[in-house]
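To close the section, here is one more complete example, presented without commentary so you can practise reading it yourself. The ligand is iron/sulfur cluster.
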Amino acid sequence: MALKASIDWDKCEGNGVCARVAPEIFSVDEQGNSDVLMEEVPENLRAKAMLAMRGCPTNAVIITEM
Ligand code: SF4
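Output:
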């Protein structure tokens, strides 16, 4: 089952943790603007997606089962 990745931009502080843990899925630029590169996360990136969700200090990363 694939996962859906999104970011709650009201909570995001742009610290870049998600992009460091899962660069295939998230990006954060020098200004701290985060983006979701891959909204449908394939099974082989599940572990990275979950790491990003757990690692986000503001709980802004949202991962849901599709
Ligand atoms: S880890 Fe969380 S707070 Fe940091 S850039 Fe990613 S979504 Fe934003």
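Once you have examined the tokens, check your reading against these statements. The pocket of iron/sulfur cluster is lined by residues 7, 12-18, 26, 28, 34, 56, 58, 60-61 (CB under 6 Å). Residues 46-55 form the longest helix (10 residues).
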